[in-house]
Amino acid sequence: MKNFNLLYDATIFAKSYIKGSSNRTGIFFAAYNTLKYFANEPHFIITLYIRDNFSNIKYFKKDALLSRFPVCINSKETPLFNIKVHKNNIKKNRNIIKILFYSLRIIKNYLFMMFFYRDNSSLLKSIDIFFSPLNPANNEFKTYHLIKHFIIFHDMIPVISDTDAVNSDTHWFNFIIKSLNKDTYYFCNSNHTRNDFIKYYGNQIDEKKVIVILHATSQNFYPDYDKAKLAATLDKYKIKHKENNKYIFSLCNMEPRKNLIFTVKCFLKFIVKHDIQDLYFYLGGSQWNKFICQLEKEINNFDKYKEKITGLGYVNDSDVNILYSNSLFFTFISKYEGFGVPALEAMQAGTPVITSNSSSLPEVVGDAAIIIDPDSEQQCIKAFEDLYFNEDLRKDYIKKGLERAKLFSWEKTVNKMKEVIIKTVS
Question: Which of 141, 155, 386, 417 is 20 to 30 Å from 212 at the Cα level?
């Protein structure tokens, strides 16, 4: 088999790769893990490409994976690295300070491109594959008709949940929609995402080139019931947790589709109904102060139960596994997900999961979790009761979850992608 030159859109790393940053979202991890396993394919010769956030390339040098590949940028896409623009600015200006400023810009950009830049005009002639974990190729790339394009399509959240975003010409999702075509191959992370994609944009794409490739978790999760490690982690997040106390856990952002207000309401009704004193609800995710204000508006006498609900804020990658493992159960009763990684992470970490029957979530959990209607308080409280009072049931779901989670891995996911890509370009 011959070797193929693959241009990998690494813009998402330039935007968000700062170690420990909360900007490292699920799409970031999908992009990173895809690249990681592509790198193991001996027939792919990989070059990274970025379209903006150029100054963050310095982080690539510190990363064991990203530092392995050459990086190219397109100076035509931004005036910042277009030296012709700065030369013209010098000609137009008589101000000595501005002339000096633009001259220094030219020197800086020459030095930058000497270390990081690869000329696109010669590079694109040799490229066989353009692969992007999110963004479509720019217009220049599309003029090279021999390049095959492959893009991961993650979800329809901007269409389903955010009408303001869809109505904005500058929203990133609209750049994707405007670029849709029948020549590009689209990898969807679930059958549900594929069906929605075709439902809304089927006339712009080739259905045969829309391929379901189920995703996997962002990192290696495993059961870890070490109570000393848990105590240290909770202390790190300033949580006063007594040894005999129990907690349920949720990990997501605080946007409405995550259905957290509903979940908290059900939790409080559950503990009041059964006069439970030893159970707490820990929520990982950003924008906690804003969310607390919403809870105070939505829930009567919230102050009375405030100590039962604790926001951890952004949870570091290194702490997530221990928080999953030691929770009595994990809740992820979202109304819409493209895939639903947290539910899979929790199962891998050895904790029972309560999730919703909406969108892609049943595809992820199968029969290894309690699945409920995301609008049914009765079903939610019943699920809480089942897992709180029935230890045997908890153990059964832990066992089922661990077995179910074995079906998902980035190695399997990327191998399927590579099969499609190599078959297409060979």
Answer: 141
